[in-house]
Amino acid sequence: MLGLAVTLAGCVGGDSSGSSGTGGTEDSERTTVSVTMGQPHEFGLELSATDAPAGDVTFEVANQGALPHQFAIVQHEGDPGSLPMADGNVDLDALDILGDSGGLDPGATASVNVELEAGSYVIFSSTGGHYNAGMFTGFTVE
Ligand SMILES: [Cu+2]
User: Fold this and answer.
1) Of 23, 36, 104, 139, which alpha carbon lies 20 to 30 A from 65's?
2) Does domain 30-141 have CATH number 3.20.20.10?
């Protein structure tokens, strides 16, 4: 009788320590993507990754161009060049902008935190006329 009780207690202790360790690792998962605006040309965008797993994503944005730029991300299926337009500019009022750096002067940086579900996204410069100049790229969340 006494031997059986000791064996059960040891078994329970091992299980609980194993599950708590796994949970802590999953909670801290966050993907970081670097975004360089104004490279390789003024109306270009360079990303360190073009996809990310669903969940929390931090975009570390740097404006390395000679003009002000503004990072924005929206969910959009299909061609990244097919966002709605109004008066010759991308129609910001028609979009649900999930993350926005605010205006970035040359040399400025910003961190933009978003929680993204699986789908297709467009990252672009919301500064007037820059989307038309080709300052956008697709981004995929899986
Ligand atoms: Cu721009």
Assistant:
1) 139
2) no
